[in-house]
Design goal:
Length: 175
């Protein structure tokens, strides 16, 4: 039950990021809107790198893999939509696979991230929060660089009463 709750939350944020990125032009995915800022492509590469590192051999090896190039995730460059989509799918796929192997009893097990001991539950809380914060950045950047035809990902302004009659965003996302 509890692992499923984490899986549902990861799914909700994955879907939100995908809906935001779908509204952005290919050029917009690489647009940096602030000095020393990140593009959507950079954030996607970072989220993917983080998830692959954390969830590969999740229960048996440190969550910060030696093979990870965190600084490289933020390197300047132009990345096409295919590369960005592939990175996004890879990262979330590793999470989904790892969560499918867990049981609620595993939440009390100990793992390490950068040599720090954490329970699986602590690591999942930390990871879902990290992922959510970056998806929020992706949504904001997408809204900034998208055209005026933006489709809101939450309750549209002035429509709370209508939404409350059918609160569909509260349901777990199913892939």
């Amino acid at each position: 039950m509890f692992v499923k709750d984490f899986a549902d939350e990861y799914g909700r944020y994955r879907a939100m990021g995908e809906k935001a990125m779908a509204q952005v032009s290919d050029d917009g995915l690489n647009q940096v809107v602030a000095t020393d800022g990140n593009s959507i492509a950079m954030i996607v590469r970072h989220v993917s790198g983080n998830l692959v590192s954390r969830f590969t051999d999740f229960l048996t090896s440190d969550g910060e893999k030696e093979s990870r190039d965190r600084d490289g995730e933020f390197a300047d460059g132009t990345f096409d939509r295919g590369e960005i989509d592939a990175a996004w799918k890879t990262g979330w796929g590793v999470v989904e696979h790892a969560l499918a192997q867990l049981t609620d009893a595993d939440l009390e097990r100990m793992i390490t991230i950068r040599g720090q001991a954490l329970t699986v539950h602590e690591a999942l809380c930390r990871s879902v929060t990290h992922s959510a914060s970056h998806v929020g950045q992706i949504v904001l950047l997408a809204r900034i660089v998208a055209t005026n035809t933006w489709n809101t990902l939450s309750i549209p302004k002035g429509q709370s009463k209508q939404y409350n009659q059918n609160p569909s965003l509260e349901k777990a996302h199913r892939r």
